[in-house]
Write the structure tokens for this entry.
Amino acid sequence: MQKDSLMQQGVGSLLIGKTRQLFNIDFWSVPDDYIAVSNVASDITLPSVVVAGLPSGAVIERAIAVFKCRAVEETSAGVNALDGAQEIQVRDDSPSAWIDAINLIADMFLLGASAREGGDVLIGAIDVSGTVDGNDTYEFQWAQALSDADGITFYDLQTGLKIWYSV
């Protein structure tokens, strides 16, 4: 294909092979008001993401998970952080097996006593396209969420999926 023809195909597309193009799109959950991580390990349900509107014949080439929150608060009146490595996981709503999507490290979200800080956006590095494979609902959980002290609260959170697909 000639360079001029490629330029006319628009932003957000790349040529792969001779007849397929690569596109990306983000899908987000409905916001949740808060979740609390305590000093007792537990799986915390996060908002689900509905993937809808992918064109017929689309092939998911890569998918990554995203977690965002507006604020993080330490509510135990002491220094606090995540206790050990943890994961945010995703699965098909069939339900299928949970797979790791975002790795969290020990001492992440370190907060001083009674501190409240602005939130963040965590972008996974794990390709979850083996599970996120088309239009469907995908469930999220924070597996074995655990803080050093009781507790850390995450406010106004959403989960998302960034999907690269070819047609």
Notes: The chain is about 5% helix and 55% strand. The longest helix spans residues 3-7.
